[in-house]
Amino acid sequence: MATSVQNNKRVKTYHFHQEWETEFCFININDKCVCLICGASVSVGKRCNVERHFTKVHGNFSRDFPAGSSLRRDKITELKTTLQRQQSLFTKPAKKANSATEALFKVVHILTKRKKPFTDGGIIKEAMTAVAETLVPIPWQGECLRCLRMQ
Ligand SMILES: [Zn+2]
């Protein structure tokens, strides 16, 4: 009985080791071993699988970028930066959409709180201030809010 319960639970026994990053150009993303060079992931994150992928698919990498050299370190940093840039391509639009929705909710909250449509100048100013506080990046926020106060 106890063995069937243990068999049903799949316990992760393999963990990413940080030295694989410089040794095999692999990085840990959401508990998956992802190759920095080609973007492929290894199904089971064992050292032998990671090493096999690196030696079979990217055999020339160790020749071009010798292990332990600053050339290899720089190349891995460059590959990591490229991967982060690719990932931010998908996360940035989602953040913009979320802040636009937040600004919309703030405007609706102001309008329902005052129980008036967009006819009063004071409400428009208050709503635009709330939108500026939400959408405008922090370095330009102060100037934007100052301009709204002068209106
Ligand atoms: Zn690869």
TrEMBL record:
Look up the domain of life of the source: Eukaryota
Write down what this protein is called.
General transcription factor II-I repeat domain-containing protein 2
